[in-house]
Amino acid sequence: MKVPYVNLKKQYLSEKKYLNKIFDDVLFSGNYVGGKYVENFENNIKKFCKTKYCVSLNSGTDALTMALHLLGVRRGDEVITTPNSFIASTSVIVHLGAKPVFVDVLDDQNINPELIERKISKKTKVIMPVHLTGRVCKMDKVIKIAKKYNLKIVEDAAQAIGSKYNGMMSGSIGDVGCFSAHPLKNLNAIGDSGYLTTNSKRIYDLAKDLRNHGMTNRDKIKNFGYVSRMDNLQAAILNYRLSKLPKIINSRRKNYKIYKKYLKRKNIFFPDETKNEFNTYHTFVIQVPNRDRLRKYLSRKGIGTSIHYPIPIHLQPASKKLGYKRGDFIKTESQSKKILTLPINQYLTEKELIYISESINNFYK
Ligand SMILES: *Cc1c(COP(=O)(O)O)cnc(C)c1O
């Protein structure tokens, strides 16, 4: 049996008829940058995320940059986040001239709220929890701390469209929610795309100008801006795929339950979904001994896996100047050696999931 980690070809084959109609429609319309599908997409997302506004952008990374910038992060400021994320959540802080101040994580790989307060200084402006794997961080505690110290919250929800915590949608909990529609995310475009959500009219207005060279209209520029617009074609495809998202989330949740039923947990750790959580399983990560050997063993059995992420950000060569060292974030560092991401996409069959589970069980027998 061959079980690839992701299966974008299968996605295309299942959508081919509709996508080809969309290509034809958008190409014929002549509106490629901006257009009605972009507006529709923003309206659809704000409804889905239960926020007042959505601004479509070029990438999740741009959403993070804009969110931090518009919340006032400037040279010398500090932003609190985790070192076990995708590199972009730290790069954006560095590019704004600010300092990423890392906080270690819990067993579920998300920020440990108990460790945040001791990292707050006079320079702290924003807390940026990352909802890794499609599981929302313990936001009740993060909100309490942010209120107490008058800090803003940017949710890195790049992996968490549709995820909930205590019934609250990801992206609607902090001041700004940042999402990616990269091809590997649950709601995916056919290239780079992203978007932000907010309830702030000020941030909405400014982000809309900034993404388009800072143009308030064709002739008036209030601020120097960026080029970070979502293509009409990507928006049209995302509208179509957003209508399928609840089903996709459902089947990923079902896949999680199959793993839960078949994986023997003696040697295999994964955090259970708690009753506060509604997880969307962008990834399904197990923590195991002999991870690298298991990965090779699975590869020989035709099973594709991945590691998110093998080197914590504070130990990356790029982070040298940030002044962190090995041993600073024990949990993150020990997880980086144990984590293995298993296939959990919506195209897997129960048979394949059982094959993966039993192969892993066999390895530890
Ligand atoms: C994917 C991702 C990003 C970046 O999104 P892009 O659209 O690729 O720029 C940022 N943070 C996290 C946690 C991600 O998974």
Output mean pLDDT. Answer: 97
Strand neighbour order, sheet with most strands: 1-9-8-5-4-2-3
Helix fraction by DSSP (H/I, runs of at least 4): 25-40%
Oligomeric state of the chains?
single chain
Choose one word for the global shape: globular
Tally of individual domains: 2
Q: Sheet with the most strands?
A: 7 strands, mixed
Calculate the terminal CA-CA distance, rounded to whole Å.
21 Å
Q: Order of helices and strands, N to C? A: HHEHEHEEHEEEEEHHEEHHEH
Number of strands: 12
- What is the architecture of the largest domain at the second tier of CATH? 3-Layer(aba) Sandwich
Secondary structure topology:
Layout: H1 8-29, H2 36-49, E1 53-57, H3 60-70, E2 78-81, H4 88-95, E3 99-102, E4 124-127, H5 139-149, E5 152-156, E6 164-165, E7 168-169, E8 176-180, E9 194-198, H6 201-210, H7 232-262, E10 277-278, E11 284-287, H8 291-300, H9 330-338, E12 339-342, H10 350-364
Helix pairs in contact: 1-7, 2-7, 3-4, 7-10
This protein binds pyridoxal-5'-phosphate.
